[in-house]
Amino acid sequence: MATNLKNAKILFIDDDEKAVGQYITHLKDEGFSNIVHVAIIKTLNQALAYEADLIFLDITGVASAIDPVNDGLAVLRYVKNHAPWTRIVALSGSQFYADKADDLAEADVRVSKASLSLAQLVTLTEDQLQEALAPENRNAKILKLIYSQLDAADLGFLKKRKVKKTIEAALKNEGIPSFDWDG
């Protein structure tokens, strides 16, 4: 595995101290060095403050002060809306609930902690970091975020069109493929 994957930023947001302690110890034994654990999120921005490449997010018990109904799902939505390039592995103590299926669709992977072995954790971490750090995936997600913000901006049609053409020219100049504005 490439060295940059071992140095990637990994964030655990989970109130299960014992399980996360085992996960972090094992990942560090495997050479991962940049791992942070937060048991409870007090503000949604806190999830972004670590600038993680990969977040392991417990879906219950981590953000009830922010959103008692949706809890970890509120964090999931917030991160995906503000940093779509971040990979998120949704964790559950036992199972995922059918009534949360639509919300959980935003997670990149859904895993039950009860069935996750330490060997599977390492493989999952490697796979998700490779996906997160692949330049083409990161660029496309960043561009999609920029374009969605541009579309939401209070600009006239001609001004937006001019900005989009400027962005497309800069992308072409850098050898980055154009982006589907409507996709």
Describe this entry's structure for a reader.
- The chain contains eight helices and five strands, in the order αβαβαβαβαβααα.
- The chain is an alpha/beta fold.
- A five-stranded parallel sheet has the order 2-1-3-4-5, sandwiched between helices.
- The protein is globular, with a radius of gyration of 18 Å.
- The mean pLDDT is 82.
- 49% of the residues lie in helices and 13% in strands.
Distance between the termini: 32 Å
Percent in strands: 5-15%
**Major sheet description:** 5 strands, parallel
The number of helical runs is: 8
Order of helices and strands: HEHEHEHEHEHHH
Structural class: alpha/beta
Radius of gyration from CA coordinates: 18 Å
- Helical coverage, percent range: 40-55%
Give the overall pLDDT as a whole number: 82
Give me the oligomer status. single chain
List key phrases describing it.
8 helices; globular; 13% strand; 5 strands; 183 residues; 49% helix; alpha/beta
How are the SSEs ordered, and which strands pair?
Elements: H1 3-6, E1 10-13, H2 17-29, E2 35-38, H3 44-49, E3 54-58, H4 72-82, E4 87-92, H5 101-104, E5 109-112, H6 118-133, H7 135-152, H8 157-173
Parallel strand pairs: 1-2, 1-3, 3-4, 4-5
Short overview:
This protein is α/β, with parallel strands linked by helices and 183 residues long. The protein has helices at residues 3-6, 17-29, 44-49, 72-82, 101-104, 118-133, 135-152, 157-173, and strands spanning 10-13, 35-38, 54-58, 87-92, 109-112.
